[in-house]
Amino acid sequence: MVHRALFGSLERFFGILIEHYAGAFPLWLAPVQARVLPITEKQHEYARKVADELRARDIRVELDDRPESLGSRIKDARNERINYILVAGEREAEAGQIGVRNRREGELGAMSVAQLLEKMQSEVDNKVI
Asked: How many CB atoms lie within 10 A of CB 113?
């Protein structure tokens, strides 16, 4: 018997996952786990440093330094269902912290990168859905 399918089993599996989660994947499965947003150009270097620290710990992170307004970049990240939106402002840069928003929990406030990494690693290790 000859059988031909448009999609293989792996493609069907990913199709089922996308449909089940409606694109809002849990942290451990998301292609982009976090996005860092500097408020102004002055914080670009600090935001880049934070993104590099996260990458060094195997967190899939993007840096969004487009010349759009912060509100627009936050809206884009929410529409793309990014798990963690990290905002780098002047106060956060001076304190060595980052403003954290979680897709499920909302605004979490400022925390150190070490605290953020601990929280994210816990979610990944425990396969939180």
From this structure: 16
Average pLDDT over residues 111-123: 97
pTM: 0.88
With a CB cutoff of 8 Å and minimum separation 6, the contacts of 24 are: 81, 103
**Under a CB-based contact definition with an 8 Å cutoff, are residues 66 and 44 in contact?**
no
* CA torsion, ordered 107, 43, 60, 66, to nearest 10 deg: 100
Return the beta strands (E) in the chain as ranges.
Answer: 34-38, 61-63, 84-88, 97-102, 106-112
| Domains located in the chain, CATH noted | 24-125 (3.40.50.800)
CA distance 38 to 31: 21
Type and span of the H or E element at 116: helix 113-125
Where on the phi/psi map is residue 6: left (φ > 0), alpha (ψ -120 to 50), or beta?
A: alpha
27 closest CA partner among 76, 78, 81, 83 = 83
What is the structure's pLDDT at 9?
A: 82
